[in-house]
Write a structure and sequence with these properties.
Blueprint (H helix, E strand, L loop, with lengths): L2 H12 L1 H14 L28 E4 L3 H17 L5 E5 L2 H7 L8 E4 L5 H11 L3 E5 L5 H9 L4 E6 L3 H9 L1 H9 L3 E4 L2 H8 L5 E4 L11 H13 L4 E7 L3 H12 L7 E6 L5 H10 L3 E4 L9 H5 L4 E4 L6 H7 L2 E4 L12 H5 L4 E3 L7 H10 L2 E3 L3 H12 L2 H17 L3 H15 L4
Parallel strand pairs: 1-2, 1-4, 2-3, 4-5, 5-6, 6-7, 8-9, 8-12, 9-11, 10-11, 12-13, 13-14
Helix pairs in contact: 3-4, 3-19, 5-6, 6-8, 10-14, 11-17
Length: 436
């Protein structure tokens, strides 16, 4: 073990009491954080959990909601590629674990990601002895990688992405990060630019397979419901999708500057994180705005309020319904891109036929955002004021809107295929390492 990994291991060991305190605090608002806490430290109940599948588990780690949704696409392809596969899912967040539970079939398991101490990871690996491990997108943990390598578990990074900012941070800690990336068994990047940055960290990039999220199949029932509600709306609907902390303030300020023009559309806000639903509702109400929450709708949005010309904002305070919200909207503003947060995934919006207005900060999804803009499925704007103005113009220009919707569908369709390619690559890696 080099000195950097030894120092890192000492820090993660010392941080365990802080982790327990953080979990207790978060469990107040999100009870899932208080469930099976000992799994975080490699202790399982019952003690023989998962040992009947030792040496067989196909282990996927998807830290949070976005990664779990990408994992869901890959899981479907893996089950088709390897019938009878036994799936072991790990997560780091409550939203990831809740979403991941939907993917389980008979014989599958779901546990928390082990905190990255050597002891917890050793216990995890010895408990399950996975045939292969697949980390989704960015989740590279030093002890996890080192211990899997020592135990002969091939560990791959799939749907891999790395921003310029993250590369710079990793290079500043090169004595820790480079040996970790080098020890991965395989890396499959989303884009050529991601591959180039990953290779700068000595990662074994074996191919550029595209973004799994292009293979998303939006829920047909949700699409139909959203489209029905949109047809009933007295005004066009504009969505602020997956908004992050601070962006609601920017939105309220931009809405005020818009003045009476704001009443030309119905505004819908869907915060990215469910623990913020209540806070966002209170913030909107404190700003003098009427709020109608999805959780309170009795079968449909409150159309009577819209027809009366009142400035009543809809708040999407539900999980797992983004296809419904995208289908309900005529156009959407991309959350996370109007504050320096890196943006969110706009691929699902395109697959649902919802044109996007994206702000200046899309470094987490740089190539997807750029390709969407080039394809006419998205439009780059400098700030939220310009975004609201552009949205108003687009939704009141029927030919331009129809053209943008068609571009969305073509853009989403043109980049499919990553799921099958990744499933085949994982099976190939297992054969290479002599795994069943």
């Amino acid at each position: 073990m080099n000195w950097a990994l030894a120092l890192y291991s000492a820090v993660t060991w010392a941080a365990q009491p802080l982790l327990r305190r953080k979990l207790r605090h978060r469990a107040v608002a999100e009870p899932v954080y208080g469930q099976q806490v000992e799994e975080r430290f490699g202790r399982y109940s019952p003690p023989d959990l998962g040992r009947d599948g030792a040496g067989q588990w196909v282990w996927l780690h998807a830290v949070s909601l976005g990664e779990t949704r990408a994992a869901a696409i890959l899981v479907t392809a893996l089950r088709a590629q390897m019938p009878g596969m036994r799936l072991l899912l790990t997560h780091g967040t409550a939203t990831g674990r809740t979403e991941g539970a939907k993917l389980l079939q008979a014989g599958d398991l779901q546990v928390w990601q082990p905190w990255d101490t050597r002891a917890a990871v050793e216990r995890f690996v010895q408990q399950f002895r996975p045939a292969v491990g697949v980390l989704m997108e960015t989740e590279v943990w030093p002890n996890l990688v080192a211990i899997c390598r020592a135990h002969g578990v091939p560990l791959a990074l799939a749907n891999a992405r790395l921003s310029d900012k993250s590369l710079g941070q990793a290079l500043r800690l090169a004595s820790l990060s480079m040996p970790v990336y080098q020890a991965l068994a395989a890396v499959w990047a989303q884009t050529q630019a991601d591959a180039q940055r990953l290779r700068a960290l000595a990662a074994p990039v074996r191919g550029v397979l595209g973004n799994l999220k292009f293979d998303v199949q939006p829920d047909a029932a949700q699409l139909a419901q959203g489209a029905q509600w949109r047809r009933r709306s007295a005004r066009p609907v504009v969505l602020l999708a997956s908004s992050r902390e601070g962006e609601e303030t920017l939105f309220i300020e931009a809405l005020r500057r818009l003045g009476p023009l704001a009443l030309q559309v119905q505004w819908l806000i869907v915060p990215r994180h469910p623990q913020r639903f209540e806070a966002v509702a209170l913030q909107l109400q404190a700003a003098g705005l009427r709020v109608s929450r999805r959780s309170e709708w009795l079968g449909a949005p409150p159309q009577a309020q819209a027809q009366a010309g009142e400035e009543c904002l809809w708040l999407g305070d539900s999980l797992g319904e983004m296809p419904l919200y995208y289908a309900l909207a005529d156009a959407a503003l991309l959350g996370g891109s109007f504050a320096p947060l890196g943006g969110q995934n706009l691929i699902e919006a395109a697959a649902c036929g919802c044109p996007m207005l994206v702000g200046p900060h899309t470094f987490n999804f740089a190539e997807a955002a750029e390709l969407a803009c080039q394809a006419g499925a998205a439009l780059r704007v400098p700030d939220l004021d310009a975004g609201l103005q552009a949205a108003l113009s687009l939704v009141h220009d029927a030919p331009a809107l129809a053209y943008a919707v068609a571009n969305c569908m073509q853009f989403a369709q043109a980049h499919r295929g990553a799921a099958q390619a990744t499933a085949e690559a994982i099976e190939g890696l297992m054969r290479e390492w002599g795994k069943p």
